[in-house]
Design a protein that fits this description.
425 residues; mainly beta; five-stranded antiparallel beta sheet
Length: 425
Amino acid sequence: MEMQKKAYAAGSRDESWGPDKDGMVVFSKLFPPHADHWYPLTGTLVLTDGSVLVTSSVTQGETSHFSIAKLNPLGELDKRFAQEGLLTGLFVSNLPAYGGPLAQGADGRIYMLASSKSPDALDPEIAILCIDETGKRNEHFGNNGQIIVANKVNDRVFHGGPRFLRVLQNGDLLVGANGAVGPSRVPTAYLMKLDANGCLVASFGSSGIVDIKLPYPAMTLWKDACVLADGRILGAGYARLKSGFNVGLLVMLNSSGSFNQIFGDDPKTPGFRLFTDENRPVELNAVTERTPGKFLAAGTVGDAVRSDAIGLLSGFDAAGKNDPDFNGGVTLENTVSLNDKSGWHALFAQGENIYVAGGSAHLLLASFKLDGTLNPAFAKDGVVEDESLSVIPVSLTPYSSDRLLYGADSPGIGRIGSVIRYYRV
């Protein structure tokens, strides 16, 4: 979607957007008020007409509900969507439900990967909702536009945590989930493939599910993934080895769900590439294809929770080898702020323009060039640092050729989501 060109400063807020025309939508003003003041940002989707869908979890009565809000191109609540601009509900009567990430298929269907409280387990169950752009449920998907995946399938247990949803060109769904496997309940990342009716695709992996397991004892966890034009799937997250440290994890799967034999840095573990540090944990939080056949992964080195981490950016090709076009083929590890050391948690890249979001106490957004230096054409020397906003990043989403959306939550227990629209290079 293209916007009318106008003079602007890259790195500044788009103050034509939002209900207060300050470039920002705050969820505590968007969703109805409730006692626990908990409105986390759980998903963002830009539609072709410039509208934006955002998801959250809100309390009605004493029960958490999923909620989807639609913003018109001006950043105001579109009251033509669902009921006065909001679609709020449960998957099972009287059982709490929680919002999640969104994805849209080529046929216009919109999916939300959410959660529904299990009636007999502590962990919520995976739930998927299918709607159209007006908020109406798609009756051809699952049961009344929704499916729920049981917590336990054979010897696998699925539970909450960072997850992702992608829609393929043929309408199939890829669901990244985290859980545990085997009698010892080893934490394990999974990838599921569902058809357009919500049924597992038996030809993918093992009866529709792939276990992301290294050939030696280790836990694995998903954070993000992208799908290549030929159907291969590139995922990012981390593994925890016997040493106790987390190590950054990249995984390349073929479209069938088998591990890609040419990807990786160790012939003993085809399909995997690990990022390690002798003295500090490493986690990959985001991955993207910046141009066909060239990729970027972003993450942290160190303890991000204690604000003792630096950012990691790595460029690589379809074989998992370092990309000489990015930072001379060397992984970039650095920090751009003296006041916040939490690494990178979200990533957006297009061609030579790279954007990363960090921060554990205030807003931090940076733009890098392919040579690994900060882009002086963006904000102040390549960095937006706003200490007046106490937020932690959730997502970076391209909005148009000259704008992006920075999604965030307030830190602490009572999370309040927000979306800010910035001009970009």
